[in-house]
Design goal:
By secondary structure, the chain is an alpha+beta fold. The protein is built from 5 helices and 4 strands.
Length: about 160
């Protein structure tokens, strides 16, 4: 009886180990890639929440820092946070997607007959009600590594 392995058995075992190793490396690299994409997506979501809450027409087609976008609305005492916000620069752009109105035109009706009848006072009250208008705006940010967009509503003045 032999106590060792033949050359064919050793080569077959090495080939199986190499294939398994390559598969593990590929899985690891895919996991790292997906994790980095998840981190980027999370960071963009956080930044867009700040940008969406502080969207301003004055920033359109400019490069702003997150500190500029927050526009001094907060008294930030933490120097590290202030430095972080001042170092994050983004190209900011806006595009009006739609304008939406509620108010007097709804009282005028669409010309269709309805079973309800309105009194003159109800019609006058509806006609004198203020018209509520707002615009739906797509706000986009872009940097060397990150980009994203968010829809925000802004009242028309």
């Amino acid at each position: 009886m032999r106590t060792g392995f033949t050359l064919v058995e050793v080569v077959a075992a090495a080939a199986i180990a190499a294939i398994a190793g390559i598969a593990l490396l590929k899985m690891n690299s895919q996991s790292m890639f997906l994790f980095s994409r998840l981190v980027e997506t999370s960071e963009v979501s956080e930044i867009l929440s700040v940008v969406g809450n502080h969207a301003d027409k004055r920033f359109n087609h400019t490069t702003k820092t997150l500190y500029d976008i927050m526009d001094g609305r907060y008294d930030i005492q933490n120097d590290e946070l202030r430095k972080y916000l001042q170092n994050r620069k983004y190209d900011y752009s806006e595009q009006v997607v739609d304008t939406i109105s509620f108010g007097a035109e709804a009282a005028e009706g669409s010309g269709e007959e309805t079973e309800e009848s309105f009194t003159d006072k109800e019609i006058q009250d509806a006609a004198s009600a203020p018209i509520i208008q707002f615009e739906l705006v797509q706000v986009s940010i872009k940097s060397e590594k990150l980009h994203g967009a968010v829809l925000v509503t802004r009242p028309l003045q």
